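Ligand: FE2/S2 (inorganic) cluster. Inputs:
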Amino acid sequence: MNIINFDHLSANPILPEVQEAMIDVIRNNYGNPSSQHSLGDAAATALEAARDSVSALINCPVSKEIVFTSGGTESVNHAIKGVAFAKADKGKHIITSNIEHNAVIRSLKRLKLFDYNVTSVSVDKYGMVDPAEIEAAIKDDTILISIMHSNNEIGTIQPIKEIGEIAKARKVLFHSDAVDSVGVVPVDVQELGVDLLSFASNPFYGPAGVGGLYIKRGTAIWPMFDGGVQENNKRAGTENMIGIVGMGKAAEFAKRDMEKRIAHSKMLKEKFLRELPDYLDEYIINGHPEKSLPNHISISLKYIEGESVVLMLDEEGIAVSTRSACAAGALRASHVLLSIGHEFADAQGTMVITFGMENTEEDVERFLAVLKETVVSLREISPLYKK
Amino acid sequence: MYSKTVMDHFKKPRNVGTIENADAIGEVGNPLCGDMMTIYLKIEDERITDIKFQTFGCGAAIAVSSMLTEMAKGKTIEEAKKITNKDVAEALEGLPKNKLHCSNLGADALQVAIKDYEDQKAGKPRQERQQAEKHEHAEKDVCYCPYCDSEVGEGEAFCKSCKNALVHL
Ligand code: FES
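Predicted complex:
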C-alpha cells in the first residue's frame, strides 16, 4: 500500500537531486578533506561548498561559523554543554523554557549533576515564551539562554529576535534550537541575534544523521569530541562527507524553494483546518493560531488515546505522529502539552500532523474521511465518551 | 511492534460496549499512563453469561480488554478469578516490555467487577462504580537503565549496576 506521509516531522524523503549528490560522493569523491593530495582537495572543496550553501540558508556572514554535526541532538548538546564548560568560571546559571526538546532538557539535567542551575520559564496557553520573563530570570552568573525557535509538538514559533536583543544587552550567550525551523521557515541568524543555533538536514529534505551548529565568531565553547582539527577545531573526527554534501545540496533547494514550500504547506494546513469541523467535533487545536510552523498541526482528540489513532490510521495507509503518554517510551504525558495547560486525558489524544511537498489536496481529503471513521470507532470503545 | 493477535483484537475488538442493568461493574485506571478501562458483567448461576468493556488507552490496552472478555465469557466466577495478567498477555502472544503494564488494566478490571458482584451478594451497599483503591501491581512496574538495561527504581540518581547518572523525565 502507498503510505501517505503526514509525519514529516519524523522523516522527510530525500530530494532526488540530493540523492544524486550523495551517490556522487560515494562513487567519485570518497577522499578525506584533511589529506594533502588531490583526492583530499576534491573532498575539501565539496565540504566547503556544502558549508557555503548551509551558511547561505541561515544568512550566516562567514561560512566558517558553521560546524557540521551528526544532527540536531549533537548540535544542541554541543551548544549547551560546550558553552557551560567554557564559561564555568563565569557562572553556572542557564535559562530555558518548559517546552524544550529532550535534547535540551536532558543536557541541562546532566549539567545539574555538575552543579549548574537552571531556570525554566513557563509558557502561555499557546506555548509562547514571554521575553520579559526571561529578562527577569537573568542573574549575575547567568551564562546561557536556550530557547527553541519552533516547538516540535505544537508548532509555536517563539519571539527569538526579542530574546536575542535581551541576551545581547545583558551580555548573556543565546542558543536557539531551530531544528524544526531551519529550511522550513526563514531563519536569519543575524536578524535573530543568536550566538548559537542548532539545526538538522532532514527537515529540509536532506539525509538524517547530519546537522549543523552555528557558532558566532568569538563565542566561548568547548568541543564535544577531542581528536583531530576538523571543523575549525570545533568537532574532531573525519567528516561525514556523504551526509554533509547531501545537506549542502538540500540547503540550496530549501533556500530557492522556501516560499513555494511554505505556500504549499499552508494551503494544505488551511484546507485541513477549514474542513475539519465537517468531519469531527470535540477537539482542540494546539499551538499559536498565527505564529506557528506552516506545515504543522497539533490536535487533541477528546476521549481517545493517540497511539491507537496512529495504529488505526496506519492500517489505512496514513502516517501521523502522537504525543500520547502511551506512545512515549517513558509513559509520561508530554511536558509540552501539560505546560500549555492540557488535562492529562486531552494530552492523551494528541496527534501531530506535518505536511510535506509530496502531499496533495486529495491526500488531505482522504485523511479527513479516514480520521473521522477512526475517531468514531475509538470513541465507541472509550468509557469517557458519553453520547 | 505488536503481535498478529494483538493487532487482530485491536482492529476488531470483541465485546465492546456496556450492559444495561449489569450485575457487576469494574473500573480501573492505569497508574502508569493514566488510561482507564471499565468491565460490565452479566452473571447467571455464578457464571459470566455476558461481558462488555470500554477502554481509553493504547492499542495494547484495547487488545488486552478484548482478549480478556473472550477469556472470561462463559466462565464461572471461580474460574474467572484465576485469570491473570500473564494469561492475557500470553494469549495475545506476548506484549512489548513497556506495554506489559497495560495487561494489568484488563485482569484488574475483571477482578474489581467480580468483587463488586460479591460485595452485592454479601449485602454491602453498592457503590456507583467500584474504584480500584490501590493498584496491586504498581510496584512491579519497573524502569530500566538506558545504558545497561538493568532494573532501576523510580527517581534513583544513579544506576546501581553501571553507575551511570540517570536522567529521569
Ligand atoms: S494504556 Fe497507556 S500504554 Fe497501554
